[in-house]
Amino acid sequence: MKVLYINAVSGIRSTGRTYTEIADYLNNNGHEGYIAYSAGIPYSKGYKIGTRLDTILHGFFSRIFGLQAYFSKSATKKLIHYLSELKPDVIHLGNLHGNFINLEILLTYLAENDIPTVITLHDCWFYTGKCTHYTVDDCFKWQIACGTCPRLNKDNPSWFFDRTQEMLRDKKDWFARIPRLAVVGVSDWVTNEARHSFLSSAKIVTRIYNWIDLEMFKPVDGSVIRKELGITDKFVILGVASGWNNAKGLNKFIEVSGIIPPEMQIVLLGNISSNIKLPDNIIHIRETHNVSELVEYYSLADVYLHLSKEDTFGKTIAEALSCGTPAIVLNSTACPEIVGDECGIIINEYQTSAVLNAVLTIREKGKIFYSADAINRVKQKFNATSNIDEITTLYEQMINYVD
Questions:
Q1: CB of 273 within 8 A of CB of 296?
Q2: Taking a C-beta distance cutoff of 8 angstroms, is the pair 312, 122 a contact?
Q3: Which CATH architecture has domain 223-381?
Q4: In whole angstroms, what is the distance from residue 116 CA to residue 179 CA?
Q5: Per-residue pLDDT tens over the stretch 105-150
Q6: What is the assigned CATH class of domain 2-211+384-399?
Q7: Quick check: pTM over 0.85?
Q8: Which residues pair with 206 in a beta bridge?
Q9: What percent of the chain has pLDDT over 90?
Q10: Concatenated DSSP letters for 214-259?
Q11: What distance in Å separates the CA atoms of residue 157 and residue 303, rounded to the nearest whole number?
């Protein structure tokens, strides 16, 4: 079985690591896995789509004309040439909203050649006009027809035009033409959302959780980094994101920093604008693509705090749990689904006092009180071997699918 993955990045961040891991699994188990990507770490069986200049121009045109994934025609035609030579049995689509692909050219090729196609919902973009998320804005127009978009300046922003109605209509048309289409949600939450969209007409709509590499994400000694940061005797509250902004909860972390006791320290891992001044009790560490280093940060923390309200999975939550660190999350989208009942605390509504009380509860019980349940939950729900097996079984179903 030969599978090609198309994703914005390879080998970095959550989706890039996901597709590298599954391609490696295929290549190590008698199959062939390839990755086509726009940026990231080159893969041994990889194909780089377009150039940095092409991505910049695509992003600029997208903002000017209010259309996303309508440019990069030359780069996508070259990708199609690569596909025609590779002849994959299945094409698996990840995140395509990184200003690097022409969606119409790609999906038309998949439809005309009846290539079994799997899409994974790492966010909500595939079934909306342009939005990667929408719950904070309480907008569910995508169920019928987008337009007058409240998120026009969010996600991939449009400076002048609202083309969301057109983009939703086009996606519905292009995906409907693919004879063998499967939709995979990475949580029950996003899968159930997709069932209210035009994607409900796909041959298969199912949930397969994201997975965690248990060989990598496990408790390790974080004392060296604690010493380097000067927080040996502190109760450490950790937050992780590739890039921090208010949608990821940065403003909430700053608010919480104002009420925690002096023996506590917040550590935020991920990129933050240099224009933002952080309080002294927040240590900022730039984004790392070194997984071993990331595991050390998860392990040194006493609690993982996740204050984003919009997540289709929340892989950083599961990674923290896998390292034995309990998590505090908001009762929103898929976040409570990841933590469960025994691995941390779910806060119904964000208030600084509620966050502080949850942190104090975990400090009182101790990290070790939660660790075994946290690790066990990841082994049971987010195990790489069993979840990748589900994916490969799905590939075989789509290859053999007959109407």
A1: no
A2: yes
A3: 3-Layer(aba) Sandwich (3.40)
A4: 8
A5: 999 999 999 999 999 999 999 999 999 999 999 999 999 999 999 9
A6: alpha beta
A7: yes
A8: 184
A9: 94
A10: TTTSS----HHHHHHHT-TTSEEEEEEEEE--GGGTHHHHHHHHTT
A11: 34
CB 164 within 8 A of CB 149: yes
pLDDT in tens, 167-222: 999 999 999 999 999 999 999 999 999 999 999 999 999 999 999 999 999 999 99
Tokens 């030359």, located at residue: 74
pLDDT tops 80 at residue 341: yes
d(CA 130, CA 97): 9
CATH 3.40.50.2000 segments of the chain: 2-211+384-399, 223-381
Selection from 7, 4, 31 nearest residue 17 by Cα: 7
Q: What share of the chain is helix, strand, coil (3-state, %, to 5)?
A: 40, 20, 40
Return the pLDDT at 402: 73
- Lookup: tokens for 332: 């929103």
Neighbours of 113 (CB within 10 A): 14
How far, in Å, CA of 262 to CA of 28, rounded?
50
Give pLDDT tens digits for 288-338: 889 999 999 999 999 999 999 999 999 999 999 999 999 999 999 999 999
Q: Give the three-state DSSP class for 401.
A: coil
- From the list 238, 247, 255, the residue with the least C-alpha distance to 351 is 255
The tokens describing 379, both together, are 């082994």
- Edge-to-edge order in the sheet of strand 181-185: 46-48, 32-40, 2-10, 90-93, 117-121, 181-185, 204-207
Half-sphere exposure of 55 (CA within 13 A, CB side): 14
Contacts of 192 (CB under 8 A, 6+ apart): 185
Under 8 Å between Cβ of 292 and 315: no
What are all long-range contacts of 11-17, with beta carbons under 8 Å and residues at least 24 apart?
11/40, 11/41, 11/42, 11/43, 11/289, 12/39, 12/40, 12/41, 12/289, 13/40, 13/242, 13/289, 14/122, 14/210, 14/315, 14/316, 15/94, 15/95, 15/122, 16/40, 16/41, 17/213, 17/291
Distance CA 218, CA 304 (A): 15
